[in-house]
Task: inverse folding
């Protein structure tokens, strides 16, 4: 804002009517006090200019050209809903001067430095005027420090009240005024000043106190905010609303006295209702499992200072509505599990869009307040038979097998190390004869999966897992096809998401994009899909996995539209899973206990307990999505053996 936008008294205008205090001073001392004050402060000002030469070790004020104070980072859902903020000690959002209400700018200058646009950094006349005005009011109404002096104090100096610091403050203010224009100084000041309750700068203060942007503040609100500056925790409307109103009136009266507003405008502002917002600096996250994970990824990419002080804006891939529905489904399912006698402490769920590999929902546990451990990302648990599709895909990709190929449902066992391993089907069955791959997967037979793993090579199975994004340690043990290794629900969901997209894969992420405080793009996770699997083999696997739901071990996962998936139940019923997908969504559900040694109970299976949770979530998530069909294997060329 330029000085011409503010109504000021010209040299030809007469000063306001003297106060009783000034009249009294004139009677007693003939104006000697005021004259001495002006003389003294002018002498001090001249002395400061001379002393400037002695302050060669003071900071170079030109660093303000590139100075960016700590700013708050904002985290949003995919549709722009604010989820949480990350910041250090200072909760701040910088805004350009033109995005700050003229009402606030005028009010601040009126009460803090009404000669701002005419002085050169220090204001001897302002010091004298402050003495008179403050004595007249019986309290500190106007500060003696200029806005420029306050700025350099906040940026460069300590807040100790010493004579040397005050001199340094004045010298730096003079230097700042030589280098920067008034609008630049005012913008820096309004973005740096402390407004109480951890709010730094006009924007965050306006959002906190009045639930609106600084550019939208009214005269009443601007005057109240200007009054807070002198003692933020005292004059805050959160702390003492009547006192804040008294302080607001002082600011408005000052604006009338210097001719910047009329008495009628002041009275209207005093009587205008001011709707107070709420403290925002240390608000809790709306989706803590999500924002904790996002923060961790951001820190790994950009460092802690950028995340907590850099003022970045992060758009996540999470859909707030879907996420909250997922959390409610998980909590309700857990209550039902406990009510039915299943000894499960935890349930976790994660959903990924196969078309983009964007994470849409992630529920790391049943109650964040009780446990912040995110089981979707941090808990490696045995997937059991949910691992088998990786083996069968490898078989199809070899070109030697189709969904109708026969594999033995029997074996004499396999030597491994110094021992001998002989797999059994669920329930202890030894099997017999041969079965089709379709039947083996639909009924989750163990023996055919182990036999097939040996035939296609476990190293190749592990290679497929790595391609699909499974980073957990994998060893080529004979039992690998039965999932005895630990993986995370996130790894399972993103691997199945690549099956759902028929072999096309992008980087799985919870972050869509990141911009800095000026809107410059820092990270762009626009999907860049690549074909990483054989399309015929993937379509064949999906066709086979549909039978798991359509009459196999997961009939309880039927959602009335084409879907594919696989149950998982580990030995001792310690972990149960269902991982399934449609073309628009891949979701993994895990049930278990944080104490791995605790069993869920005899007879608890993925098909009986995890699949129904998956069905509930998918039915809700897809209620507005059209039915889509998977591509048929016949559309693609079968690989040659």
Result:
């Amino acid at each position: 804002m330029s000085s011409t936008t503010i109504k000021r008294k010209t040299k030809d205008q007469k000063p306001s009517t003297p106060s009783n205090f000034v009249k009294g001073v004139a009677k007693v001392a003939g104006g000697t006090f005021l004259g001495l004050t002006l003389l003294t402060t002018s002498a001090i000002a001249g002395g400061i200019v001379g002393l400037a030469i002695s302050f060669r070790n003071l900071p170079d004020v030109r660093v303000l050209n590139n100075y960016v104070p700590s700013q708050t980072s904002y985290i949003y859902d995919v549709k722009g809903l604010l989820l949480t903020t990350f910041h250090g000690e200072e909760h701040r959002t910088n805004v350009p001067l033109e995005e700050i209400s003229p009402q606030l700018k005028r009010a601040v200058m009126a009460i803090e430095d009404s000669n701002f646009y005419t002085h050169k950094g220090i204001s001897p006349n302002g010091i004298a005027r402050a003495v008179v005005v403050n004595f007249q009011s019986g309290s500190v109404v106007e500060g003696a420090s200029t806005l420029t002096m306050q700025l350099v104090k906040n940026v460069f100096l300590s807040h100790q009240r010493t004579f040397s610091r005050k001199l340094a403050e004045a010298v730096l203010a003079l230097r700042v005024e030589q280098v920067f224009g008034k609008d630049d100084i005012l913008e820096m000041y309004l973005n740096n000043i402390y407004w109480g309750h951890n709010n730094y700068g006009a924007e965050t203060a306006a959002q906190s106190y009045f639930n609106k942007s600084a550019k939208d503040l009214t005269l009443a609100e601007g005057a109240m905010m200007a009054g807070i500056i002198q003692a933020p925790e005292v004059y805050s409307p959160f702390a003492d609303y009547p006192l804040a109103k008294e302080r607001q009136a002082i600011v408005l009266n000052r604006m009338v006295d210097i001719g910047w507003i009329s008495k009628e405008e002041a009275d209207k502002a005093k009587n205008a209702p001011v709707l107070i917002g709420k403290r925002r600096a240390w608000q809790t996250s709306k989706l803590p499992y999500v924002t904790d994970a996002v923060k961790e990824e951001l820190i790994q990419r950009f460092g802690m200072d950028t995340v907590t002080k850099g003022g970045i804006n992060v758009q996540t891939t999470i859909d707030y509505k879907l996420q909250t529905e997922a959390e409610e489904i998980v909590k309700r399912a857990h209550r039902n599990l406990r009510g039915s006698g299943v000894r499960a402490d935890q349930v976790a769920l994660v959903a990924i869009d196969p078309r983009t590999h964007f994470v849409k929902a992630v529920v790391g546990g049943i109650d964040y307040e009780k446990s912040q451990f995110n089981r979707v990302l941090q808990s490696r648990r045995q997937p059991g038979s949910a691992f088998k599709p990786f083996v069968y895909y490898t078989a199809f990709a070899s070109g030697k097998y189709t969904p109708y190929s026969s594999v033995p449902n029997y074996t004499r066992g396999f030597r491994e190390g110094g021992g001998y391993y002989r797999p059994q089907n669920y329930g202890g069955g030894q099997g017999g004869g041969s079965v089709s791959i379709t039947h083996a997967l639909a009924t989750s037979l163990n023996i055919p999966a182990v036999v097939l793993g040996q035939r296609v090579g476990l190293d190749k199975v592990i290679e497929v897992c790595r391609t699909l994004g499974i980073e957990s340690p994998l060893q080529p043990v004979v039992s690998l096809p039965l999932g005895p290794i630990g993986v995370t629900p996130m790894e399972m969901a993103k691997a199945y998401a690549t099956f759902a997209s028929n072999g096309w894969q992008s980087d799985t992420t919870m972050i869509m994009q990141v911009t800095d405080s000026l809107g410059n793009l820092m990270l762009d996770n626009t999907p860049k899909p690549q074909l990483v699997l054989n399309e015929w083999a993937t379509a064949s696997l999906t066709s086979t996995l549909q039978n798991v739901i359509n009459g196999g071990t997961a009939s309880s996962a039927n959602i009335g539209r084409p879907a594919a998936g696989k149950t998982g139940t580990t030995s001792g019923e310690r972990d149960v899973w269902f991982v399934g997908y449609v073309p628009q969504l891949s979701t993994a559900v895990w049930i278990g206990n944080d104490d791995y040694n605790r069993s869920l109970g005899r007879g608890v299976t993925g098909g009986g307990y995890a699949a129904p949770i998956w069905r509930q979530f998918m039915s809700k998530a897809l209620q507005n999505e059209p039915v889509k069909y998977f591509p048929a294997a016949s559309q693609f060329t079968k690989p040659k053996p």
Notes: The longest strand covers residues 346-353. The chain has two domains: 3-66+102-192+222-255, 323-583+594-635.
